[in-house]
Amino acid sequence: MQRPVISIGAALVDELLHAGNSMLLATTNNAIATKTAGGVARNIAHQLAIIGVPVQLISVFGNDSDGDWLKSVCTQAGVKLDGSITKEGLSGKYTGILNVDGSLFTALLTNAAIELITPKHLETQTELLKTASYLLADANVSIDAIEWLLAFSNETGIPFIIEPVSVPPAMKLKGVNLDGLFLITPNEDELPVLVSEKAFLTQLQIEAMLEKGVKNIWLHNGKQGSALYNSEKTITLHAPDIEVVDCTGAGDGSLSGFILGKHLGLSDVDCLKLAHTMSAEILQVNGAIATHLDQKKLLQQVQKYYPD
Fold it and tell me: What are phi and psi of 19, to 5 degrees?
């Protein structure tokens, strides 16, 4: 039986408002609304399930109709919820306002209740966590939970990945001992807040992360592509040139593609190609999930964006 990826963090209702014209402040803007299942950890788990990677999600759901709907979306996709929590009250919601070009204007996060994923709860899931091929947490979870997971990773040898999510949650990680962390995946805005202000150049910031004991830093640079750094080498890869429809979930999808590559035993370069391909496909559809892809189709699409 294949060992699952265990994804830990937010499961949310994504309410996306797509602006019809250029955004104007302090007045009414016309928009089209869409509702999809979201949350960084949930998105990654959902996409992994679709592309054929066994996955468990440890998250928090409300006992409302939105919570029932989110659970249904997850289980129908093939995501298992054995370690998840159902709380009294409303489910979490992410409300994103998108510019005409699909880029993010601003966003609001409400009722996520991720603080319920405590070290005490994780202790109760130890036997489940021991079955993992990879542990993954989004930075919305508490620092106590992240530190517990990293200690568990160092003790068991199960690789641990942190997705910073955005600048505010990434800032929490600045003073955390990350020695032994397998991978962290910041973008160009998140990387600087992870280290001292004295590290004002990208290379200095990468060196600072390596000195902290992080094994791999995967830096996302948007349209410019990404770079994977470790103590032995640096790998860079350009991003495909595409027409963006909706930016939501592109980073989550790229990490799903990368993990699929690791699941299949591919090289780091080929993992990055899979990651960029998944991200490109998500950027061209509405919502955070590329539901039109399975593993076979995704692997075929790599040739489209990165022909030999």
Answer: -65, 140
